[in-house]
Structures are given as structure tokens and as C-alpha cells.
Amino acid sequence: MASSSESPSPYARTLDCVHCGLCLPYCPTHQVLGVEADSPRGRIYLMRALAEGRVQDPTAIRPFLDRCLDCRACETACPSGVKYGEILEDTKARLERDRPQRGLRAFLVRFLLWHVVARQRRLRVLFAVLRLLEITGLRWLATKLRVVPAAIAKLAPPVPPAIERSPLPTGEHHPPATVARRGERVALFTGCIMEPMFGRVHRATLQVLLANGFQVVVPAAQRCCGALLVHAGQPDRARELARANVRAFADVDVVLNNSAGCGCAMKEYGHLLGDADGAAFAAKCRDISEFLAERGLSTAPAECRARAAYDDPCHLCHGQGVRSQPRQLLAQVPGLELVAHDKPEDCCGSAGIYNLLQPELAGEIGRKKIESLARAGVDLVLTGNPGCMLQIDSHLRAAGHKVRVRHPIELLVPPQ
Amino acid sequence: MPRLESALVRLLGPQRVLTSPDALLAWECDGFTVHKSRPRAVVLPESTAEVQAVVRLLADAQVPFVPRGAGTCLSGGPTAGTTAVVLDLSRMRRVLRIETADLFAVVEPGVVNADLTAAVKHLGLHYAPDPSSQTVCTIGGNFAENSGGPHCFKYGMTQDHVLAALVVLPDGSLARLGSPAGSRLPGSVDLTALFCGSEGTFGIATEITVRLCRDQESVRTLLASFATMTAACRTVGDIVAAGLVPAALEILDQATIRAVEASVYRAGYPADAAAVLLVELDGPTAVVGEEAAEVRAAFARNGALRIEEATDPNERKRLWKGRKGAFGAMGRLNTDLYVLDGVVPRTRLEEALAGITAIGAKHGVLMTNVFHAGDGNLHPNISYDGRDAAATARTIAAGHEILQLCVDLGGSISGEHGIGTEKLDHVRMMYDAADLAVMAKVRAVWNPDDRCNPGKALPSRSACAESAKWPAMTARILRDEVRP
Amino acid sequence: MSALGTAKTFVADDTAAVATFLGTRPARVRVRSGGSRQLRLPEPGDATVLDLSRLTAIVRLDGPDQTCTVECGLPRADLDAALATCGLELPCPGGGTLGGLFASDPIGASTFGGPSPRSLLLGMDAVLADGTPFKSGARVVKSVAGFDVHKLLVGSEGRLFVATRLHLRLKPAPRCVQWFCRTGLDVAAAIDCLRKLQQEPVPPAAVQLVRAPDGSCAVQGRFAGRAAFVAEMLRRHGLPESAPCWRDHLDPPTHGEVVGGATLVGALPVLSSHLPANASLLWQGGGRFEAALPDAISADAFLHTCANGGVSTLVVHGAPERRGHGTLRDDGHQRLQDGLRRALDPHGILV
Fold first, then answer.
1. A79 inside 8 A of chain B by CB
2. In principle, which of B136, B341, C36, C241 could form an S-S bond with C96, CB 3.0–4.6 Å?
3. ipTM score for this prediction
4. Could you tell me where the beta strands, DSSP code E, fall in A244-391?
């Protein structure tokens, strides 16, 4: 049943699971729902049964797989080293190939992912329209008319003004003359949603890299990382994007990411493409915090007086094993008091477009995160993934907390 | 939808009644994956009243049912027959009451063992029984199975920590067992202790009152590695003979150490040692200091290769990490794992381990040993490929012989995992027909028509078809395997 | 023991003899080993006494394994002497024979959360009322195979089956023991002292509260462990050293009744406030208590108050027809207890 590009079969990898259940308490959906089939152990069992041909109607197990956030917390907890993410993504791809999901919603998701999100120019246009709607008050009207579900409308953040949405200039960027050069050239990946929603993070990233003496290239030919397509069970389209990225970054040795989700996906190009090019590309990828912690900061960050919590994005801590590096960098920010909060590695419920597809469950998971942050009594939350930033920010706002959410790189910018 | 299912949906709503046969596959087994059976339905009650209502419906329909917690049981306890409905209690997870002065807590059955300790930690208290699956397993499941754990040697089993319970009987009526002042009411027998370890065949506990323990002033964890298993076992004997009562005395063999060290639970155990012995001492600081010196002396007398000691909580956590993750880490050795559980008198440990090694060699199975040495509670683990029928048969045959060895040495076929369906065939190694008849009489008082977790814990003549399948399979395998 | 003096008696020498005797289908049987607790049971009437006092063997004593097997008629003092030679002890209070101690369990544990006879009983050999021998449990310290029928012996008063041999768990004898006794306290001060001892991570090995009829209270017991620890605990709690002092029971009053029950320290203030001024009280650290009341009327009033407060009590010493009276019990619990008796002794032979 396995096609050549997809070996080893997900079935073989489900066999690593001995059903011990140590993953259960780490699974956000199991914590909320308490349902075996909504736990990693249960999902692996269902996927194994599917591969064994014991599932009569695959659509019956689909909801359990769709409710998975793909946060990979279970991989961190697993003593047997089960590669849950790979099993899930392969299984979803097979399901989508054999029985594509029908209905308007499934169509819309597929359409948006491929025809808008994966195309940066169209995405820019979309955000310009959204901004216009907001300015003219039409968003309010659309919510009132129930064109947009109330829950989403309430949580959706305002679109930033055009100046913040403007893309980073592509091509080469050189450190200012006042800075000692390190003689290392790195490439910056800009992704999809980060640019229109968090253009300031890209600018901060560029600024920090240049201030620390690195030469930075922003390749014009780069494309979306494809993670959302992989999660939606469309690996073929994701592969198309991945190949474009492999080409776009061919002439650099280091590809930097400030979005944990994209970074994780790109580190898994080896598995996605199943070839040496993919693996070689993956080996070049670094999260910005990972890279900077390794090289060390040569220019001190500006002072920031705040009581802050660092919340681990799932695709950084579980997906890439990056935990200490962001904390280590933040510890160098003068004036910053970094406090510990409960379960920083628990998912916030963002998970790509999960909060749009499973709003209720994502809301429940988000509320738990906010409770933990509220208990810590912080006035600043730091996290390195755009989805997490949006989710945490919107839940903080919804709960009436006046707490800012920032990307850690924003605090590493030197004094002006 | 059949009438019963519709009635259940009316009672709990469609979200908390699962009937799709494909989805139900997820409830096919617990940690004992050799025996699988798909239930008729799964329901997720959230209160005593809901459990009662569901059980009444099932009583009216004469349908069997099975209570289930986190499904970490290792003997098939919560595996349901195809006609049975599973009451999954995972959503009953509130801590109802914490009494700091009188040191007890009242919890719902779905409360995770480690979560209870987390809930009372700030009060300087903890819940003592700590099965290796404590981060996952539920107090309800622990109560049903009389679960043990590494700290049993000093602190006793679950039975010694449950004071009272509110139980829904198989006819839907309620009974209150014990009281916070003691599991046995004056002028009565100890129904709480009897229920504990009944493997879900007596009813469903929906509120459980457990003892809380004060945290000790000081905890020290020592780890010693040895060149031979014999030396490790003798050290345990020396420590106990000196009159010390450590909180835990655990041994891991070389194969286990290597599997653990390859996993995320790596603890820095020396990979070249034949055995490591983990000793935990707790108590007043001065006392623990003296005891640690005596333990170190025992290590030295028995030629320990390397000694490590943890005094701070992080170091202690690291030394324990490998032990607690050992079972899952075996997944690295092969696709399937058969976790055995047998007890021998502590003084016969060396003999038992030698015998177990010989049995493993005879059947050509890959075996690892990790065990509660203080209690003589062995856990030989056989890693095998369940898709290979011959390998499975060899595994089961080796398991059978190991349990017989434990009984022959004066021990038991289970120290903490229970009989479930796994050991229905082995019970007769310990008990004859008269013993089993008495146990069946006792069960019938609680569960007269045997609808509550049928086919578990006791071999039964009239077992329903699906629960009889597994013992029949064992019997066939044993016959074929024993045949030259 | 006058009631038993006139009864027919069958003296058994071993388990087989017990089985043979019960196999003759006697109409009614009262089990007795040492006989010291018979006065706490209802009158046996015309029952034949099954005397186990000659079953006195220590069948097996495995020092290094810290377990032993004894016959039910073995006097506790004999076992203690044998255990002392190998540095072990049976860490629960109570005297008489081991069969009687386990079947009646009148004291429970001697300290907060301490070991009770139930927790030390690993298994048994026994005979059903119809003469069928059976066993339950195991010899080893840990076994979850089968249902724990042997735990039903504890508190059964010999009315479910006749146990003949017990497998027991032993513990190392402590290196140092020091008794303490703090007298002249009022109830509040005594309870305050207990509260503090209860919160110790290592509580005393035994502790009890004794209220004399004049209302003055004593907290007494012993600490066990290493010498430095024992000394430190006595100092910390201001407990004066004393000679061994421990009471298993209140002295049976010449007239009046003894009510037994179980309660936590938290309920002690209320409980003692409901006792008549001249009543004495003995509260054991494991939660069991006895209160001696001057007459049946005040005993009934006390039982009633306890029942309303959710404290389980019953008359343990009094006129034969009053013994066992007053227990607060849940309906479901009562049904199960009656059901067990019917299941194991359907003809009601064991009385």
C-alpha cells in the first residue's frame, strides 16, 4: 500500500508504541476531553488499525485525528521514541488522498491554504482588504450579520496598518559600518502570516542580526514552508513549496527562522521530500534563538523593564528541542525579570489554523494557558511563533488582561 | 441506533456516548496488548448520579459493563467483552476535599495519581502509593487493582492508603465503605480492603477517601552499580538485615539500563554495569544521614563499582527518571512488550533471577528485568514481535514457566498488576477449586449476576465466549510449545 | 467466661481436626482460642465451643524475609519472644492469642496511619462453616492474586469462617524505644498535643489519649527509631519520659457500658463534649476509641449523638443483649455485610 516516496510506512512506526500511556497527561486534547481516542496513544492505535485494514469507515476516526493539534508534546513524553508527527501527517495524507473531505468548509480550507496563504502577493492583498473592512467598520457589520462566527470575530486581532505589513526588502543586507563583522552570511525565511501580522518581528530579526555583525540575505524566490498543507493532508502541494525553498536557499549555509512552526516543518524537509536535498536543506535550518545563543550576542540588547514569562511554542520545544536558548538570550536583556509559570510547554491551542477549525477546543486549551500566565502575574509574555502570539494575545484580551505579547527577538534589539 | 444506545445518549448526550465501531477500537486493550476485544459502547459519565443512572440502565437491559480509568493496567483488567459497555471514568477527575489537619483527601476515581500529590504539594503533603505510571494512572484504577509501586516497601500498597469509598453496585444502588477514621467500621469487617484489588468486579467506586502523608524532612537517593546481579541482590539482603527500612529498593538489569539510556528517560546509569540498585531513604535529616552511611557500607561490602547520591530534588528526579520510564523504553527493543509480575520471598531473589534467565534462554526470548527488590516483586519483561505467532507463543510459554517458578519458591503470580484476563490460567497455580469457590461466593455478594467486569480476576466455568478466548489461546499455545 | 464454662467444647489439634469437626454439621459453633475476648461477644447460648487454644505452633519464621506463619491459638507473648531473638516485631497492639487478636481487632493501629492487624495479615488457611478447608492470600509481602478473603477475618469475630493459620508481615524492631506520658492536661491541651504529633512526618510509634472520670487527660505512648531522633522528638513536644505505659482497653466498669468506635482527632473535641462528666475515654492513635459510661441510658444518648455526628459506634461491653447495639451503618454496607455472612455461612452455624 505504501508508495515509494512514503516509506517507511506509518504502520511500521506505530509499532514502536507499546501502549504505556505516558503521553496522555501531556496531550492538550486528552486533558480537556478525557477521551482515549483523543489521546496520542488512542490516535496511534486507530492509525495502526487503519493501516491493518481493521477500520471499516475511515471517516469515523477522522474527527479524532482532526482534533489533534500536532503539538508533539507526546513525542517529548514518549519513552519509546515514537515519531507521532510523522505518523499523523502520513496518515492524514493517505486519508485525504483516498477520501478527500467534502463540503464547503473543507473546500474553503483547501482553497485558502493553496491559493492564498501559499502565495504571498495574494495574502498581502487579502490583508489589505481586511484592514479596509476594519477601518470602514464593515468587520463589525459582518460580525453582526453572522457572516463571521462570533467566537472567531471576538478573538481575531485587528490587522496592523500598512506600514507594519510592508514586506522586508529582499536581497542582501550588510551590517552597519559601526559594527564588528563576523564574516558569516545567513538567510532569513519570512513565511506567510508573519509578514502581514508581525512585520515588526521580521524587522527586529533583521536589525538584531545586522547589529550582531551578520550579513543577511532575504531570498526573493522563497515560498511558504508548507506546514499547514502537510497538516491538512496535502503533502504533494507542500513538496512543491519545499522544493522551491530548497532552490531559493541553495547558496547559503544557514537558514534562519523566527517562526517555530515553519522552522519545525523545514527541519523535516528530509522526511517530506524523502531525498538527500531535503535532508541537506533541513540540516541548514536553525531557529533564530538557537542560532544566536550558539554564536553569542556581540551587541547588548536595550533595557526592558518588565516581569515576563517565556512560553515555549510546541514546534520549538517538542518539535525542535529548543528550550534553553531563548531563555538564555532573554536573560541578557537588562531589566527583564523572567519568571516561571506552570506548564510552559503545554500547547496554547493555536496550532496553525487549528483555532479556526476547532474553535471551542482551542478556546478551552487557550484559557488554560491564560490561567497559568495570570497566576504568574506577568505583564509581558514572550513566545516565538506567530500563531501562538495571536492566540495568547487574543485570549489575554478576551479575559481582560492588560498583558503584552512579544516575540523574544523583539527584546534583543540594541538601544537606538 | 439500538434502544440501549439511544437511552444512553438521552442520558449523557451524544458527545459522551461513543458507539462507532471504528472509534471503539481505541478502547480495545490496556497495557496488556496481547488480548484485544472491542467493547459495544463507551460512555463518559461525570458524576456519581450519572454512573448510577448508566448502571441502572445496563442492569435493566442485563448488559455487562466494565469500569475504566487511564487504561494503564497491565493485566487486561479494563478490556471489555464485545457485548459490554465501558464506563470510562477519565472525566470524573475532581479533588472533592482536602483535610490538612486529619490528613486525608476525597477524590473522584478519574483523578490521576500524580495530580493528587501535585494538588497537596504546597501543604507539605503527598499521596504515597506511586506506581511507575503515576503520571497517567488514576486513583480509581489504583483502588480497583490495589496498585503498588517502588515505595511500597516502606509505605504499603494502595490498600493501606484507602480509608473509605462510595461505591455504585452492579444493580445501581450505593454503598459507603469505611470512613476517614478507618477503612473498617467498628463492629464490621473491612469492606474497603476487600473491594481494593477486586479488579473492578465488585462495583464502581465514584468517591475515594485516601490517606495523605506528610513530606519527610529529608530524602536521599543512592544509586550503586554492580558487576553481577548477585552482588546487587545480596546488598539488598544486607540492607534489610541491618534493620533499615528504605522508602524504596529497586534493581534494574543491564538490558534495562541500556534501553533506558537510549530513551528520553536517560538517567545517566552506567551502561557497563550488570545491575544498578536504587535505594531511597527518607526521614529526619540526622537519621537519613546515619542510614545513608550504613547503605554505603553495604554497597562497599558487596563490591559496588560506582556510587552516586542525589540530595537535591532535581538530581533525585534524574535518578528516578530511568526507573519510572523503564517500561515504555522497552518499546525500543521490539514491537511488543509482555510485562510480567511475580513475587518471591526476598531471600529467594537470586535463585529466582537465575531461574528466570534460564527460562528465557530455553525459550530464546529477549528478556529484561527491573524489579522492586525490597518486596521480592519481579518484573521480567519480554520484548517480542506480536506479528510473529511463534515468537508470541514462546513469550507466553516463558511467562507461564516464570510464574510457576515464583509459586514454587513460595511466592505469588502477581504483586501489583492483578489477574485481569492475563493470568486467569495461572490462578490455579496458587489456589485450588475450594479457594476459588470461596472467592466466587464473595464476589457474588457484590456482583450476583456477574455483569460487572465479567471474566476477570477469577477463572470461571461459565465465562462468556470472548473472555474465555484468551485463556483458551494460552492453553493452546502452552500445549503446542511444550510439545517437543 | 461463665457462659462458656458450661458449654460443650471441641478441642482441635490442627486444621484437619477443625474441618472434620465442622464436617459433622454441628448446629451452632462458637470459635474460641484464648477466650480473653469472649465477654465482648453476645452469649453463645447452646453453641458448641470450637477451642483452638492447642493450635500454638510457629509454623515458619523467616527472619530475613520478615514474614512468619503461625497457628491461631498461639499466644502473642510467645510470638513476641520468638521474634525478639531475630530482631523483629509484630508492630500492632493487642494481646491474647493471634487468632483472637486478628478476628476481633479491638484496637486497630496504635498511631496515626500506623500498621493495623489488617495491614499485617498476608494470608491464611481457614475452614468454612460446612467443613471445607480453603486458603487466601500468600506468604509473601505483596500479592494481588485473588480476592483478599483473608482480610475479612479482621473484625469478623470468627463468624464468617474459622481461620487456623495466619501468614504475617513483620518489621525490624526499632533500635531505641522511649515511652512518654504527659499527664494533667485538660481536653483541649491534650488534643492540641495530639494535633502536633499527628503532623510529624514520623509520628510516635504509639500514642493514646486517656481521659480519667475526673476529666483530666493524659497523652502517652512511645517514640521508636534512632536514639538521637527519639530524644529530639521528646524534646520538641515537651513529653516527659516514662516507664512503659499503654492501655489496650478501659477497665470494664462494674456497672454501666463501654462504647467503642472510631474517629479522627478532628472530631475528638465534639466527641468528648458529649461525654458525661464522669465518663472515661481511651482514644488510640489509629482512631479507635472506647468510652465507659455509667449506665445504658447515658450510653444510648452518647450513641445517638455520635450517630448524628457521623461517628460510627457500638456497645462493646455491657449486658449480653446490648452488645453490638448502636452501630451507625450505611444501608448498602449493611446489605453487603449480611450478604457475606449468608454466602460464607448460609446456615448461620458460626455464632
1. yes
2. C36
3. 0.96
4. 255-257, 285-287, 306-310, 336-339, 380-382
